């Protein structure tokens, strides 16, 4: 039953919008475990990747049951609901919308009947050819001369299109159907999906979003967006799902199928902000890469100062690196109200006017009279940094030097990250000097793209860096530039 009440909001302050992730996915096959509870905890570890809705699909070998709703994982599920989701196999999803509105119908996992069974599917990433896929669904349905199987009515996201396409191969196994459908998809997709008996995972040929496989000690398989979700359920990391690979996991072990040649272009922004610091991407520790960026920032943009402070939490490793390399003491000058940005309660006008103060509070006793280096992970619109610089000065800072652990974000992402619209990206129009003046800092330094790439230890030709350099590794047709409501535009009322 839809749970939206029209009051849901993540934007406590309309001008305070940073990059938004595009979802976390988790799957587990484990006959000896309470799989819905493992999935719940896996999603908990991935909550930072999507906070609009959450869902779990579970199979007992005979049928798949899906439970999903708007809200955080802890708001959607309680003990009673999880106890009712019994089976040996489950997948889970937490969503931030990039194609399709943030409504119950677009929450995941998506579900369809397929032949004599069914499929449930969760997706991290964003497809760039949704318009073509919509036509392909109609064509395939006509070819097999069969009305579409029942599924999620009213869904307008790219993920539902994948599920609908899979359902147009009712005579194939789900693995064979996926091998037919996935080559038709363009853009970013890290998928977990399931039928009544087997857990599957698949990743686009570029491997833009991460996806890892783990093994449970008592027998069982886990797939997740990040390694932290394996750790939280006690699974041992085995390997990444390779770009262009589909894996099937069940009592017969792991089976692998290639549907495309690997052309790795992993998202560089995962290193900057999206992934948790305890993630490993292409074998590289995200925490280590962020600390190294901080060291390089200190070398490239030195300044005489008394204290290095991070904008918590994602900039903390880079601030540690800056302090280490510069010899300037590290400290905490900003306290983050970790949960307020994820409330579902619409703030009153009085609270909205407080803006950034709802999220951060300065530690006056640490800041007063000091020359500060404030390290942040990225600048999107510049409003957050402008407010923070003002807040630090109001709290008594004598100087505020801003160092940014990523290059200027100049182009939008079409592969699953929702930045501000292109016209709102401050670096798209302004030089570093102009941005420095705009945010009111004493000095400003961005890590270069080359330095950030080196710190990731991934070769440049195996990375997507499009939001920094405008070079998109997967073609972006005009239809994809319609934005997240493109399927509402293409098929209004569907
Ligand atoms: S455009 Fe930026 S955020 Fe999007 S996939 Fe490429 S590097 Fe990542």
CATH class assignment of the largest domain: Alpha Beta
User: Helix count?
Assistant: 18
- Give the uncertain stretches in residue-range form: 1-17, 490-494
Largest sheet: 7 strands, antiparallel
Overview of the structural elements:
Mean pLDDT is 88; it is low at 1-17 and 490-494. With 494 residues, the protein is of the alpha+beta class. α4 runs parallel beside α5 (158-166), α9 (286-300) packs across α10 and α9 packs antiparallel against α16. It starts with 23 loop residues before the first strand and ends with a helix. β15 and β16 (284-285) form a beta hairpin. The strands form 6 sheets. The chain has a 7-stranded antiparallel β-sheet with strand order 3-2-4-1-10-9-11. A 6-stranded antiparallel β-sheet has the order 5-6-7-8-12-13, with helices on one face. Strands 17-20-21-22 form a 4-stranded parallel β-sheet, with helices on both faces. It has 2 domains: 20-265, Glutamine Phosphoribosylpyrophosphate, subunit 1, domain 1; 285-462, Rossmann fold (3-Layer(aba) Sandwich), CATH 3.40.50.2020. The protein contains 18 helices and 23 strands. The protein is globular, with a radius of gyration of 23 Å. Helices cover 29% and strands 22% of the residues. It binds iron/sulfur cluster. The site of iron/sulfur cluster has 11 residues, from α17.
């Amino acid at each position: 039953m839809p749970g939206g009440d029209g009051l849901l909001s993540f934007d406590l302050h309309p001008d305070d919008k940073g990059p938004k992730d595009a979802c976390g996915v988790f799957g587990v096959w484990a006959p000896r475990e309470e799989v819905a509870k493992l999935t719940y905890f896996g999603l908990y570890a991935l909550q930072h990747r999507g906070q609009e809705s959450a869902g779990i699909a579970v199979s007992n070998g005979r049928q798949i049951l899906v439970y999903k709703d708007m809200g955080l994982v802890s708001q959607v599920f309680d003990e009673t609901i999880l106890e009712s989701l019994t089976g040996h196999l489950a997948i889970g999803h937490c969503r931030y919308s990039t194609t399709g509105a943030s409504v119950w119908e677009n929450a995941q996992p998506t579900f369809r009947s397929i032949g004599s069974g069914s499929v449930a599917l969760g997706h991290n990433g964003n497809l760039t050819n949704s318009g073509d896929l919509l036509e392909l669904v109609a064509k395939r349905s006509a070819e097999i001369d069969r009305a579409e199987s029942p599924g999620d009515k009213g869904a307008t996201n790219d993920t539902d299109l994948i599920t609908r396409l899979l359902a147009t191969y009712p005579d194939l196994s789900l693995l064979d159907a996926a091998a037919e459908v996935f080559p038709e998809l363009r853009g970013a997709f890290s998928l977990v999906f399931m039928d009544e008996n087997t857990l599957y995972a698949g990743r686009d040929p570029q491997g833009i979003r991460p996806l890892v496989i783990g093994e449970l000690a008592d027998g069982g398989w886990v797939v997740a967006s990040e390694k932290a979700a394996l750790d939280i359920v006690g699974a041992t990391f085995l390997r990444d799902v390779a770009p262009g690979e589909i894996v099937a996991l069940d009592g017969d072990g792991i089976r692998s199928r290639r549907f495309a040649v690997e052309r790795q272009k992993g998202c560089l922004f995962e290193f900057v902000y999206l992934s948790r610091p305890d993630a490993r991407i292409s074998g590289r520790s995200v925490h280590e890469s962020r600390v190294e960026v901080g060291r390089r920032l200190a070398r490239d943009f030195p300044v005489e100062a008394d204290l290095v402070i991070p904008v918590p939490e994602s900039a903390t490793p880079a601030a540690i690196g800056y302090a280490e390399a510069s010899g300037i003491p590290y400290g905490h000058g900003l306290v983050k109200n970790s949960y307020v940005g994820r409330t579902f309660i619409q703030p009153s006008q009085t609270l909205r006017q407080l803006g950034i103060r709802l999220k951060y509070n300065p530690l006056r006793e640490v800041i007063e009279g000091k020359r500060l280096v404030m390290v942040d992970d990225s600048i999107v619109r510049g409003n957050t940094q402008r407010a923070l610089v003002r807040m630090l000065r109001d709290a008594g800072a004598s100087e505020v030097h801003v160092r940014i652990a990523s290059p200027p974000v100049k182009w939008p992402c079409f592969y699953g990250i929702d930045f501000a619209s292109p016209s709102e990206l401050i670096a798209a129009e302004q030089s570093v000097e102009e941005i420095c003046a705009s945010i009111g800092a004493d000095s400003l330094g961005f890590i270069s793209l080359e330095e950030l790439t080196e710190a990731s230890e991934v070769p440049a030709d195996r990375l997507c860096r499009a939001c920094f350099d405008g070079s998109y590794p997967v073609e972006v047709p005009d239809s994809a530039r319609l934005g997240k409501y493109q399927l509402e535009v293409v098929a209004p009322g569907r």
